[in-house]
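Quick check before the chapter quiz. The format below is the same one you will see on the exam, so make sure you can read both the input and the output lines.
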Amino acid sequence: MSTSLGPSWNLRSSSSPRCIAAFLSKTDSTSNINNNGNAASSSNPFEEEESSWPDNPSSKNLVYSVTIGTERGSLHYRAYPAAIEGGERRRHARDGYNTASSAYIDPENSINLQGAAKGSVSGIVVARHSAESLGAGKPVEEANDAAPVFLLLVDDNRGSSSSSSNPGAYAAHLVTLKHGAFGRLGPPTNVDHLESFEDVAPSHARMGSRGSVGVGSITRFGAEANELQYTTKSTTSVSLPRMSCAAYHPNTGFVYASGMGVFSLSANNVKAVLAGMAAKDYISGGRPEFFGKHYSSSASVSSRTRQQTHAHHATTAGRTVPSPPHALYLKAANSLPRPGARCSPTANSITLACLGRVAIVAVSNSFYAVPACLDVGIVSGADGNAISVNGASASLLAGLPSIAATKILAFAQSSQLHPVISIDVMYPMDIATPINTDDSHTDKDANDTVAAITKFLKPITSQVLLASGRECTVVEIVSAPDPRFVSLIGKVSVGGGGAGANNIVTTYVKVLPPRHGLCTFPGPILAAAPLPSTKCACLSDDSTSVRSKSSESLTSGPLLALLTVDGLIHIRSPFCLSVPFSSIEVGTRPNDFFSVVALPKSSPGEEGRKVLAASYGGEARVVLCQEESSQDFADRLLKMSIDAFGANGFPRIDLAEALGATFSATSYVGPEATNAKRVLLRQYLEAVLGLADDVRFFLGAGGGGGNGGSSLSFFVSEESQEGGLEVVDTHLSGGKDFTANPPSSNAPALGPNALLTCTALLCLVCFQLQPPTGNLANRASKACSSSMGTVRPRDPIMSKAAIAVCDLVADRLLKEAAAASFSLLSSSASISISTNRPSQSSASMEFVEAAVWLLRSCGCHEKALHALEERMNNPALRNASVSIGSSSGGWSQIKFDSYIATHLGELWSSKDDPCCQLVLRSSATRDLISRNPTLGISIFTTLHPRNEKEWRSIKQSDDPLYHPQYPYKVVELLKGVHPQVSTHEQYMGEMSPLDSPGSYAVGSAASGTLPLHSGRALAVAFLESAIGIATGRCSQNDDVLVHEFSNNFEERVADMHDELSYLLLEGVISERGDGDNGEDSPIGAIYRYKLRRLLSWENARIRSERLLASLPASFLREHALLLGRLGRHEDAIKIFYSDLDSLELALEYCDIRHERQQAQIEEAKSRGTSGIEASSRECSYLPLVNVALNSDPDSDRGTAAAIQVLSLRRSSIDKSAALKLLPRNVPMSAVTRPFLIPALVENESQVRRLEVAEALLRSKYMRLKQKLTEAQLKSQASLHSVPALQKLHLGDPLHSSKAIKARPVHLASPHFPDVMLIKHFFLRHLVIQAQVINSASNQDLRTLADVAFVVAESSDEALQPALEVPLKALPHGSTGSSWCVLTAIPQRLETCFLTCELRYTVLSVDAYSGTHLSFSSGTTANNGQGRTYVEELQDIEVRHAEGWN
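Here is the expected output.
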């Protein structure tokens, strides 16, 4: 961590500073101040006006504004440039100071109000937007576009924190800064008389003008002088209550502690803050985007929104947007113990945590948490404004329980000289997004609103720094809403200004103990400030999808700046508070610097963080904090390791080389190593590696520090054993053991060398701690291995030094664990079984496991396997681990075998040559397969597809037989292993459904799962898994793969299939004894079944000729299957029918062939290919009929068998071809009953079924055709609905004539319809609409098709036909429109006569549906569907004056 001193800011005034507040603002806010610090504007500073700031200001328009309160009651404002460059700046001669600093900066603007209050201004609490409260991605310049509001705490020596009559040590005043002057906000007396902020605005006198108060004059708040006047509608003024300490949060407003109570400042007293802030944040802009850090205050008063009120929800453009609940501190007047809240306004003795829902107050040397009540927004006054605490109705308070504070922590007794400090460091963003309803207000609006409000009521966890004297610590505070009150939201209506108790939700506080203990500093702590994270969060609903961005260095996450009495600023991380990151001296005099404030970034791209330290001497120093480099990290880790282990207690040189540490760090000697130093190193490494619980919670899921959030969720259980509320982390647990299986999303972003060395050091320090923490070491090494993945041996991404560190640490852990086990063996009898403490054997085995994970992480896989094998194979070590009992932690044999199988399987699955070669040559592989064949063979079959879907989606490189060498080597390895046969037979697994008898084999009677009792069985199991015979490998996918792969791959696949077939054949022969008379043993029957299944499998790539030559003569069925694969189906059937004398086997063979043919035909249809192989069109049963007739010595029996085949398969066989094969002398009676009559009956039934289907389809077609005709008529019914006319873009018609009836010139046909003509005049077109009514009086009920109105000739060239739109069909009794479009030149047209025709075709129709009986695409007379008529109509006259006049 690099820290450096920046420029010094001149804060000097006529008196010594006592408190300070800093924030980011714009230079325009001080534009009314001249160079002398006087107000130059003549306008009322409290009048409303629009901002004159530019729309896109840059960082040059931003300044750091500092407000100072002094011991004499004066207020001062200073503005300094936001861009800190450290350049020289001339001092004014009037200052009279001499300094040698080249970076001493005077303020750009200043406002001085001397004697503003009677007494010393001891505290300033500011309410103002900060850049961080705007949300990620928003420009910093959008911050602070409104005047700040200050709450001043003035020590007037009139009160004390323990006084019951007048509690609160300080008087309180509300002050604002606008238009270059301070002004007090006067408190109103009655809420009914207060309508807006302007009602309390002071009548501010012009500064620098005659008769008013200038900058240099003394003006006291509450004085009898008339410098600051107040105009209200009330005659009596009510002052603010006295306070001991106060804080501000946007969700609460001002909250203060006084005596033994905690109170929310009345909304009436600070209406400008509540109305302005809430309206700006929630009404105008929706919900705020909270970040994980709020510094001093993060809200402001916007002058543009003073008229807006804090109601339940805001309506923006008709959209209802609920606002987050407001936190109120009700019924907490006696929540704190005596002597009451401690008075320490300058050092944050009160802070608001958990989004303002918990007030943490210091009482003496202890800290207490006071929960707030959440106003869900339904509590409102009669005027719609938020009800103040003082104005709350009695019925509201009566239903609420009294609030009691929860004690957080008590420090050692310290004097009142040194302050107590509490700071909210960070919290996850846990605010739900409100729902968006429709613009229309429905009856569901109320339910939607209640649901949206409920989303805000989530438990929230904050990380809080507590400090007193020299001690400090970080604790976690959880605020959870009471589910009983949440369930009552919205169930009781509120009206007339009243409120019910169901509108308030009480909360409970759960305090988690400090995770990392107390941290003690050399000197007392005077002040502290949280520093924001330098990286933004990446929030997601699926929190496991977000990776930590700041784990690379803790210095990029949230930090703390602590100022001690000796003038040192210490930079620490809240996750390891005792580890010093950096320290820098800002002052040489003790107790000179009293305050430290974090400065927000002035631009989004600004690097580093800035801290401002103020002194009583009027000087402020800016401290610049930069992220540490990798070398800084290496030096710190090396020095901490030397402190923890000593200079020679760890591989110091290798660690320095792996991390790149400097020579000074490497040569560091350090003090004597102690257990406390080892604990410190463990905490630091836990935080760096992301293993600490708080790091996982605040950074692991949300990603990047204080400004980030976390989507971790909690739930509140009412069934706690203690009767209270139990907060359970549902995200971290998730029903799984998080410590045993840490998710990869929490893996740190460290480099491989840093990750390995840090993990190794953590394992070593865990072993040397007293007592050892083997669980943490095991968890860390597992997480490291998970992050590194499968590391190949001597991977170049890791340095040799890093590998050496892991190797040496692992060796030491293994040796120490072995020594502990031997020592335990001799004293095992004295160990009590009933002890609850983990045994030494359990701890030693955890470190053995950690060492193995370490070796795996650095690529030393062979050594890791050997270490475990040595421990499990050494009888002494094994007895030491199991002699104590089941609770000793020693590994069982099955756990050891599972671990070895998983490790070897990961190496094999990596497909890396060195890793695969290691698996093949390792003795651990052979021993595992020999001990546990099922688990051992899973090393090679884990990645094999298990079903048809996986086979279809397999990639080319993922095929189990893709590699040119490894399948052969695996088979040779398995064939050379001799499994240890036990009384309990080990099987490959349950039989697949595809292994059922008859699925692939013909006539199988014996099937089952092959026992893995020999190397042959192991090789068979591997090859079957690799080729996919039992896992549904489809032929289509296999063919695709074959075409994609090279010819060499096809040869390798054939070799593997041949190898499997020969292994199965060898198994059948070897299992048959000499005296078995040709009968197979049970295992031999399984081999035979698998062989037949392979020969029957359509995807098999067996070289049939080669295998056929090797088969013994007694393997008749296997011969038949091979002949079938060669296409010699008659020869195969002859073996089944004649040699085996089994018609059933022959018929089953034909059935399988027929099924495959049908599947190929269906597959070809689905692919859309027309070409089908001739073999797929052949009848599969004709060869059997032919064999039965020609091969049977008994012709009668052969004929009967052929007829039986015809009878049994008459639905699938080619009937005519089969009848031709029968002898001529076969009597008709022998064929009629078993074949002909059933065939004719089936054919007749098929004809009837087809006729019924035809009628149904015809009826459906007619209905659809009728609907289509109606839709076409409707689409041509009006001028604007015809698609063909819409494409012409005719525009709006100028005129439409009346309808006239068209008459034929000659005698019309009996089918001539009624025609009405309408002329539509457009700018350059004439459209004639012919309304045709098919109402002929004939009895045929004919349908007209292709009805077209045609303009055959025009008498004037200015009017010519361009487009005709006919009617496709016009059923009888229907009306449709035919259109004719003519292009017109109206300027040249006077009178024109058009010769017109009506053309149509008469079709026959269905008497019921009115639909023509055409089933083809055409409807013209050329295809013989009807007669076409052309009827000449009387001429139509078109005149210019008729439509274009």
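If your answer matched, good. The chain has a mean pLDDT of 75.
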